[in-house]
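Extended Data, record Lamin tail domain-containing protein
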Amino acid sequence: MQGEPVFHSAPASFSSRRLAAAVLAAGTLLGVAALPASAADHARPHRQEVQITQVKYDAAPGRDDRNNRTLNREWVEISNRGRHGVNLSGWTLSDRDGHTYTFRHYRLDGRSSVRVHTGRGFDTRHDLFQDRSREVWDNHDTATLRNDRGHRVDSESWGRGRHH
């Protein structure tokens, strides 16, 4: 006969087929809803993986001689404690007064560090330069690292009024 359904096993009742379909649909929706959250966790580094690990501030105590060598003795070290490299392009490093350095076309390898110097110089894998002519990091300051979406990744404070 043509047009009749073919059953390879005993036909199930209408309500049990309907229940099975509902359970299957609910499981599929739950799996799809959980996927983006799980995938998002793998796409971006954990907060503790990229962090400010050292700060050398006030390279010439008591004077601001604007000497490039002195300026480059002032730096902030950023470390990636994770195994995988992190693209820092668009990330920023700033102080309390709003002086901001933006990372451009830079990838920090896994388990490595980079020092961001205040003065002028040639960028390398381990040293980047802000090309400034004045000191940035004061005796009482805060260095804040933000990702390319503007979210705070880490901060380090020193001197009076410390907060982390």
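Summary. The chain has two domains: 12-41, 50-158.
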